[in-house]
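Regression test case RT-17, inverse folding.

Input:
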């Protein structure tokens, strides 16, 4: 079913990649926030 409709596959892939990039951005942001807090505490 999925193989017969390549458009759906690409659509799902685009959504997945968008979510992945968004998640990585959020994770990196929170990591930066944590490092800033640690830096403020240590200094």
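Golden output:
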């Amino acid at each position: 079913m999925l193989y017969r409709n390549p458009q759906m596959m690409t659509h799902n892939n685009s959504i997945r990649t968008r979510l992945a990039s968004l998640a990585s951005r959020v994770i990196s942001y929170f990591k930066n926030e944590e490092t800033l807090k640690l830096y403020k505490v240590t200094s």
